[in-house]
Design goal:
Layout: E1 9-15, H1 22-32, H2 53-58, E2 65-71, E3 74-80, H3 88-97, E4 100-106, H4 113-125, E5 128-134, H5 143-154, E6 158-160, E7 162-167, E8 170-176, E9 181-185, E10 191-194, H6 199-212, H7 216-223, H8 230-242, E11 247-251, H9 260-269, E12 280-284, E13 287-291, E14 300-309, E15 313-322, E16 325-326, E17 331-333, E18 339-340, E19 345-349, E20 352-356, E21 358-359, E22 364-368, E23 378-381, E24 386-388, E25 398-404, H10 410-423, E26 428-432, E27 437-442, H11 445-459, E28 463-466, E29 473-475, E30 480-488, E31 495-505, E32 512-515, H12 527-537, E33 551-559, H13 567-581, E34 588-601, H14 605-614, E35 618-624, E36 629-637, H15 644-651, E37 657-667, H16 670-687
Parallel strand pairs: 1-3, 1-4, 4-5, 5-11, 6-11, 32-33
Antiparallel strand pairs: 2-3, 7-8, 8-9, 9-10, 12-13, 12-24, 14-15, 14-23, 15-22, 16-21, 17-18, 17-23, 19-20, 25-27, 25-28, 26-27, 29-34, 30-31, 31-33, 34-36, 34-37, 35-36
Helix pairs in contact: 1-9, 6-7, 6-8, 10-11, 12-13
């Protein structure tokens, strides 16, 4: 394969809301550029980019994929990212590898939540931004309405470059404002020049004004009334796009291939190359430095995506940010310090890998079977430790308990989830010792549904999910003094232990044990046995079987038998005292309270605050956030937050987010406590 320099490599991320047509556009780009010989269709499950079985089944992108094509002597890597919020981790991966973010909008729905979120992420990451308004072949599409929406949501930097000409309120032809030519397209996407009917007069001045603002000489020429040359327009658009002053807006229809060729040309002419991008900040041998994207720099590549497959092994997708990589390169993992050897280097093309001899700075490749390389790791040349910024993933917000359908599959579940976590760091899990549940965490219901599906397809484990149990606690509210007496005679040595213990409330997560024995009523050598009996009893309370906290136990009296007393006897006597005493000490149920921080649009404030109050929460304060968002601080019982992630997403149309952290335990209201206790007793009776 031809080797491209960093100045001829362009990394373009396709992003936008679910259903905007990203994958369809990617297929059209690959087909028209000659990278594929057929046009894949999402509905038929034969696209290059959505090659995963889950994507074929759902007809939606759930993970990042990469392919490439050539145009005008440039190598263009396209990175197709998910549009569903539940798979935001894939968006973060693609954002790390991209230099330009092409936001794909539906001509029917315009700028929606997913598009706005991606726009903010791209601006924050310093990426160049372009916009493509697709699906203009639809009867309900309205380019001009969407263009105004883009200008309103993304700002005045939005600049039309390709504009449709309408016939019967439907796109009939397209005008390239750069060249001043209009084109009609046949069913195969082949363009033929047609008449331009006044579109240039209305929209070309907007483009010229944006171009003039990118360069002082062009500004003087513009105000002098001189016409720009085509090359000057391209240079101005490229400079403005690179610096974020211009967002070129193009349009077309990926399904019919209409005007996709002009998009290919615009990417080749306007989108910044890897070499054009600002220098990357990196930690080089402990000091912060800047790395230029150049073949002559020190070798450094960042792993932005991992695929862990039980059949093909681990695949590590990486972007070379400095230097030139060959199979002979001597590299190390900057995180572990371990040398990394690879027999070959490949470049991705959907689900395939194409072997190459070397990769230039700015290009994207794939390593296979590197055992200890994780997403976010830096691969650098031996002799110099370079650490690049990794991938910023969102925190998981939805937890579910996961159970095997077949006994004995517990280890398979843990092993499978750990493998899935390698390729998707937004997945988490924990083994809750209190509730005896394996808890899996994700970004939403669909995300966890994919986890369940992949456990079955990749690792052969059938599982079900349930709402996790709440880790309640029990404690006492008053002081009592009780006796625990264990006596058993069955021939030979018997068993005898007798204790008097005072139980009282205290501030402690574990048992506080003291002894105040006078006159040797209980020998000292039995004190540890008494404490052990109480400690073990604390694991299961008398109300609903939950662990007991906040109890101080003082051994004040008792008696023993010189022959029949033993450590076991006193341990059992202490357990009897606990069982008899705790019900007399006004036991109550405690529930975990979480500190909740919600970021949401101002218009949803009332609904969310009402929902927090309905869930027994307390709003502590409200503060203004960025971009007309509000921040609500509250405390809420964690038992009431099981579906909060789903509800918040529904109420705010995906704009809202939240964090929830355990704060403390509080007493459960009597009516709710009674229900919990009742359900617990039912469970015990069933078990019996």
């Amino acid at each position: 394969m031809k080797l491209f320099s960093s100045a001829d490599i362009k990394n373009v991320m396709l992003a936008g809301h679910a259903g905007s047509g990203k994958t369809t556009l990617a297929e059209a780009m690959l087909y028209l550029s000659g990278a594929t010989d057929r046009l894949g269709k999402t509905a038929e499950g034969n696209t290059v980019m959505d090659f995963d079985s889950e994507e074929k089944k759902r007809q939606a992108t759930v993970s990042t994929s990469v392919a490439y094509f050539e145009r005008k002597g440039k190598k263009i890597n396209i990175i197709d990212s998910p549009g569903l919020f539940d798979f935001e981790g894939g968006i973060c991966e693609a954002m790390r590898a991209a230099d330009t973010v092409l936001i794909v909008l539906s001509g029917k729905s315009g700028v929606n939540v997913g598009s706005q979120k991606v726009y903010k992420m791209a601006k924050s990451a310093g990426k160049a931004i372009m916009v493509y308004i697709s699906k203009l072949n639809s009867d309900s599409a309205d380019y001009f309405k969407v263009l105004n929406d883009v200008k309103e949501k993304f700002g005045p930097s939005a600049c039309p470059v390709v504009v449709p000409q309408l016939k019967n309120d439907k796109a009939d032809s397209y005008v390239n404002l750069i060249t001043g030519k209009a084109y009609k397209y046949d069913e195969n996407g082949k363009a033929s020049e047609t008449e331009e009917s006044g579109t240039l007069d209305e929209y070309r001045p907007q483009m010229y004004e944006a171009v003039a603002g990118s360069d002082e000489e062009l500004m003087e020429k513009y105000f002098g009334g001189e016409e720009f040359t085509e090359q000057e327009v391209l240079s101005g658009l490229a400079a403005g796009t690179l610096h974020g002053d211009i967002i070129p807006v193009l349009c077309g229809a990926g399904q019919t291939l209409a005007c996709v060729d002009l998009l290919l040309d615009a990417i080749a002419d306007i989108a910044p190359s890897a070499a054009d991008m600002p220098k990357e900040k990196a930690e080089v041998d402990g000091a912060e430095k800047e790395l230029a994207c150049s073949d002559n720099g020190p070798l450094a590549a960042v792993v932005f995506k991992t695929v862990a497959d039980p059949f093909i092994g681990r695949l590590s997708y990486f972007k070379v940010l400095s230097g030139k990589l060959t199979a002979a390169s001597k590299t190390v993992n900057a995180r572990t310090g371990a040398p990394e050897r690879f027999a070959k280097i490949s470049i991705p093309f959907g689900g395939k890998q194409i072997d190459v001899s070397e990769l230039s700075a700015g290009d994207i490749g794939v390593f296979s079977k590197l055992a200890d390389v994780k997403t976010g790791d830096t691969i650098c040349e031996q002799g110099q430790k370079i650490i690049l910024k990794g991938v910023d993933f969102p925190a998981s917000c939805l937890s579910m308990a996961i159970w095997p359908k077949n006994k004995g599959d517990e280890e398979k579940i843990v092993s499978g989830i750990q493998r899935l976590m390698e390729e998707d760091p937004t997945i988490g899990y924990e083994n809750n010792q209190e509730t005896r549940e394996l808890i899996v965490k994700g970004l939403g219901e669909q995300h966890l549904d994919v986890v369940v599906s992949r456990l079955k397809s990749k690792f052969g484990v059938d599982v079900t999910m349930t709402v996790p149990k709440v880790a309640y606690r029990e404690t006492i509210r008053k002081k009592v003094k009780v006796q625990g007496r264990h006596k058993k005679q069955s021939g030979g040595h018997g068993q005898f232990g007798d204790v008097w213990i005072e139980f009282e409330p205290c501030d402690s997560d574990s048992l506080v044990f003291e002894e105040k024995i006078f006159g040797g009523a209980v020998p000292k050598n039995f004190f540890p046995a008494v404490e052990k009996g109480l400690t073990e009893s604390m694991q299961r309370g008398t109300l609903a079987g939950y662990p007991v906290v906040g109890v101080k136990a003082t051994l004040v009296d008792g008696s023993y038998h010189p022959v029949d007393s033993s450590e076991m006897s006193f341990k059992l006597a202490a357990a009897l005292a606990f069982k008899n005493g705790i019900p007399q000490a006004s036991p109550v149920l405690l529930e975990p309270i979480g500190s909740l921080k919600v970021v949401l649009p101002d218009e949803n404030m009332g609904d969310i605050m009402g929902e927090i109050n309905k869930r027994r929460g307390r709003v502590l304060g409200m503060n203004p956030g960025e971009d007309r968002m509000q921040i609500v601080d509250a405390e809420i019982p964690m038992a009431e937050t099981g579906d909060f992630a789903t509800l918040l997403r529904s109420m705010t149309a995906g704009r809202g987010s939240f964090t929830l952290n355990f704060e403390r335990y509080e007493e459960v209201p009597a009516n709710i406590a009674q229900k919990i206790i009742s359900e617990s007793n039912v469970g015990e009776n069933d078990a019996k």
